[in-house]
Each structure stands twice: as C-alpha cells, then as structure tokens.
Amino acid sequence: MIGFATPGAVLSGAPVSLPVRNLVLGGSPRVDGPVAEHVRMLTGRDPEVLPPIVVQRDTLRVVDGEHRVRAAVLREDERIRAVLCEGTEAECFLYAVRSNIAHGLPLSLESRRAAAVRIVREFPGWSDHVVADLAGLSDKTVGALRRSTSEIPESNTARIGRDGRARPLSAAQGRRQAGALLAEEPGLSLREVARRAGISLGTAHDVRRRLDSGQDPVPDQRRSRAETVPEAPPRVDAALLLRQLRTDPALRSSEPGRVLLHLLNLTGQALGRRSDILGAVPPHCLPAVAAMAEAYARDLSGLAEQIRAALPDPH
C-alpha cells in the first residue's frame, strides 16, 4: 500500500450530462484497444445504473469509461452521465490506470506493462514498489522494465518509496550523506540524521561509530561495489505487536488507549482482507474509497512521525 499522495486527477462534484458527440476517445491505458464483446454487453444495460464516466474538463477526453461511451454510441444515446476531473495528461493517465486496475474490465498484462513504462517515464523518481502498486505488477517486473527501456530517464540520486520518503539509490551514498551531516552539524540527533539521509537508525549509529574511530563511513565491501538497492527497514510482525499492546494495562485502562487498540485491530483486519473488501465495493464508489484510503494513509503516516518524534533520542 502506498503511504503518500501520488499526483492524480481531482474529481469535481456531482455527475453532469454531456453530449456524447463532444467526447474525445484515445489515450487509454489499454494498448490492445476496446473489447467489442464488453461493449456489446454494456449496450444492453440500462445507462442509468452504470457508473458515470470520467472526463478531463479542459479537453473532454474520456479518462475512464471508453467502453461505456462506445456502448452509448451503439444505442444512439445523445448524452451520457460524466464526472469532470482536473489534472495534467500524466495525472489523468494515472487515474485511468488505477480505475482499470480496481474495477471494470481488467487491464491485460501487456497493458499493465506499458502503463508501468509510461509511469516510470513520467515519474522516474518513484521506486519500483510504488510503480508496481499502481500498475498491478511485481516490483521485479517494474525493475526489469526500467532497465530494459532506454527512453526512461535516470532519476538523480534517490527514489521515493511507498511511505513517501526519498531514499538514496546507493547505500554507500546514504552513509556518505550521513557522515557529512554529522560533520557539519555535530549536535544533530541520530534520528534526524537517519531521516535526512534516508537510512535506518542502526546505519546512522554505525556511521557515527566509524567516524568516531577515524574510519570511513562506508565499509570497504560497500565501497568496492556499486549498490543500487537501498537498505530495507526490518519487517514488522504487526499481529505480534498488537497482541503485546492489547495486554498492556496502561493502554487498556484509558479511553484513548482503547480507541487506539480498536483502530489498530480494525486496520489489521481490513488490510488482511483487502481483496475481499475491494471486490465488495461498487464501481461508482471506488474513487471515493480510494481518496479516503489515501487520506487515512497520510494521517496514519503523520501519526507515526509524531510518535517517533516523541521517542527519546538514542545516544
């Protein structure tokens, strides 16, 4: 799950009625084109029960709902319900990919791979994990596409991960940046050094230890080879941590503590059943649910930052 707000088209208000003849088709993430059988199936459906299409306000280009538009043309409908959205071409493409991954007729593997290439081209600083989540692929597939496509520009020195933090492409680079921070600002806390350099707190400890002993902040084996994978934070057993927290009387004895435990429990249950939950959401509700999920993710990430900032600084 992506824990930061990726750019995207913004939907504006209630559905409106637009003339079908004014709509512009093209730019869909479906590289294999519309599916005629799906269009014929939609032709027999009541247009009032179908979710509104999504149209870019400035261009009247259909962002989501090409099959519904083609069905309206076959029915000779003059107008169609639509939600207008505002955003750049790249942002509207992101919305189209998300919508087609989440509902309706799924994108083919070829279309998802092509979408990943375009996303990486538009946002080269995003990590393989972020692009994979958006395009419905594995991060290994995205990495292979990034390496095999010469037209994709190289990002500068870091990539943005699921949590919105920029991390150096080279672990050695992160250590050198931490060393420079400690030299320039000796009073800086290790937690702040780790945050600015995009490394783990343990790595920041090791960098300071090496500097204090007169060593290079980068171990010899790291200097001898170019590492392109940032150090991953340790995996957390959330279920185990929740069980431990639920037995803590300090949390259970207060109303805010019980609310926190309830929140953590519900969040864990929901994430564990995300496929079932996604399948139960009607297509016309998906944009609102996605927006709320992103908003809650930002709030939870902010809560985590506040909690970490309140921790005593290790020395």
Give the topology.
Elements: E1 10-11, E2 16-19, H1 36-43, E3 53-56, E4 62-64, H2 66-75, E5 79-86, H3 89-102, H4 109-122, H5 128-135, H6 139-148, E6 158-160, E7 166-168, H7 171-184, H8 190-197, H9 201-212, H10 220-223, H11 238-246, H12 249-252, H13 255-272, H14 274-280, H15 286-310
Q: CATH homologous superfamily of the largest domain?
A: Conserved hypothetical protein from pyrococcus furiosus pfu- 392566-001, ParB domain
What is the β-strand count?
7
The major beta sheet can be summarized as: 5 strands, mixed
Under the CATH scheme, which architecture of the largest domain would be assigned?
A: Alpha-Beta Complex
Q: Could you spell the SSE succession in H and E letters?
A: EEHEEHEHHHHEEHHHHHHHHH
How many distinct helices? 15
Mean pLDDT: 80
Indicate the proportion of strand residues.
5-15%
Uncertain ranges: 1-6, 226-232
Radius of gyration over C-alpha positions, nearest whole angstrom: 24 Å
CATH structural fold name of the largest domain: Conserved hypothetical protein from pyrococcus furiosus pfu- 392566-001, ParB domain
Termini separation: 33 Å
Domain ParB-like N-terminal: 16-101
Protein name: Chromosome segregation protein Spo0J, contains ParB-like nuclease domain
Biased composition (Basic and acidic residues): 205-228
Region (Disordered): 148-167, 205-232
